[in-house]
Amino acid sequence: MSRPRLLLLLPTSTYRTKAFVDAALALGVDLVCATEEPSTLEERAPDYLVTLDFNDPRRSADKIAEIQGARPFSAVVAVDDLTTVTAAAIAETLKLPANSVAATAAARNKHDMRVRLSDAGVPVPRFRLVSLDQDPTMVAFHSMYPCVLKPLTLSASRGVIRADNEGEFVAAFLRIGQLLARDDVEVAGEAARHLLVEEFIPGSEVALEGLLVDGRLETLALFDKPDPLDGPFFEETLYVTPSILPADVQARITAVTADACRALGLEDGPIHAELRVNDHGPWVLEVAARSIGGLCSRALRFGTGMSLEEIILRHALRWPIASLARERAASGVMMIPIPKAGMLMAVRGVEDAQAVAGIDDVTITAHVAQQLEPLPEGFQYLGFIFARGETPADVERSLREAHGRLAFDIN
Q1: Which of 159, 171, 207 is nearest to 379 (CA)?
Q2: How does residue 109 score in pLDDT terms, banded at 50, 70 and 90?
Q3: What is the DSSP pairing of strand 5-9 with strand 75-78?
Q4: Is the pLDDT of residue 1 over 60?
Q5: Does one domain contain both 150 and 99?
Q6: Confidence class of residue 16 from pLDDT cuts 50, 70 and 90?
Q7: Which neighbouring-strand residues pair with 222?
């Protein structure tokens, strides 16, 4: 009996490759990896490596249908934002269970998402679509303040800028326009010509990691973000779970996120939602049809030690999952922010940081001689710190202390 065949869509910019590949190999599936750039090994292993244009989902789907041959794929999984729509198109062509292309595309475009959620009565900020061809001074004159300007499809808070007055609005407008025109930013169509302007929602921010099973949302983890995210940029740092919010507030967050998934038409697979919470309740900022980014999934363990990636792959393959319950201990991750632009010359204090009580690991992903770029133009981190403890407060203290022991020499 042949092994199940799994297709992983792996953009070259993702942090997620190793975690998903390791999970797939541990499950013993026949793995095929697709990237947007040709591999030097592709000619030697054409049955296991394939190049796809992730900006052309239909063409990618046709190519996979051609190479499927007599050994059909059992599942296709997108590991990052850039590949979600392509994965949906492939699944549709191969008649595999997945979210529809329309629903996935709506979740990928911040304006389309806002429209669908607003029409369904899901709490979202007031918003409007603005063309980059418009006069920014006129747009600024008619805007609400404080507001947030953001690209339509970029992730990891890239290009997201708060403006408190007309001058800051014009500066942010021009800055985002310059970012979208860069060669290293892959945007097309409406996303290259427009940006979203929405009211700034005060309050604390949370992230919900979930799995949609037959249209039902299973909450895998709810992360608090202890650092305030008030701008002018919105670089995320700390994620700590379980949340310390009251149980009724957490229940409302889950309910609103489920409403948002239904409004978008998402029914299957992982979702990552970002929400703001204040006295008026939860407000949906984003619902992405993929799992948490970076290396952050390492902060999560389920059942008897199952990883988030194994859960996602088992669900895609329609294999049994023993438990979706997260481990009892509190856990968290710190995404180490880039403090300034320049070349990384040295990293100091890693061993001291790893010695902090409660720290599981310190992983530096930036390398010496790498050119670093902070938000809002950049999208990467210096690395990740992982911790576990009896309480969320213990985890937060460990992460902050470990970060304080690190030093980065940037020229």
Answers
A1: 159
A2: very high
A3: parallel
A4: no
A5: no
A6: very high
A7: 208
CATH of the domain at 29: 3.40.50.20
Do 375 and 234 contact (CB within 8 A), yes or no?
yes
Predicted pLDDT at 45: 54
Both 11 and 91 in one domain: the answer is yes
C-beta separation of 332 from 395 below 8 A: yes
Q: What is the pLDDT of residue 325?
A: 96
Full domain range(s) for residue 384: 329-411
| Residue 267 located in a structural domain | no
Residue 120 has pLDDT above 70, yes or no: yes
Region label for 311, one of left (φ > 0), alpha (ψ between -120 and 50) or beta (otherwise): alpha
**For residue 61, what pLDDT is reported?**
97
Q: How far is residue 80's CA from residue 292's CA, in Å, rounded to a whole number?
A: 9
In a domain, 222, yes or no: no
How would residue 190 be classed by pLDDT, with cut points 50, 70 and 90? confident
Q: Give the closest residue to 196 by CA, choosing from 283, 114, 276.
A: 114
Q: pLDDT for 152-189, tens place per residue?
A: 999 889 999 999 999 999 999 999 999 999 988 888 88
Evaluate whether residue 184 is within a structural domain.
Answer: yes
212 phi, psi to nearest 5 deg: -90, 120
Residue 362 counted as domain residue: yes
Q: How many structural domains compose the chain?
A: 3
> For the whole model, what pTM was predicted?
0.95
**Residues 351, 382: one domain?**
yes
Report the distance separating Cα 175 and Cα 57, nearest Å: 30
Identify the CATH number of the domain in which residue 133 sits: 3.30.1490.20
Kindly report the CATH number assigned to the domain that includes residue 353: 3.30.470.20
The residue type of 29 is: V
Mean pLDDT, rounded, for 262-267: 98
Q: Convert 309-334 into a string of H (helix), E (strand) and C (coil).
A: HHHHHHHHHCCCCCCCCECCCEEEEE
DSSP result, 77-121: EE-SGGGHHHHHHHHHHHT-S---HHHHHHHHSHHHHHHHHHHTT
Name the residue type at position 249.
Answer: V
Count of alpha carbons within 13 angstroms of residue 52, beta-carbon side: 33
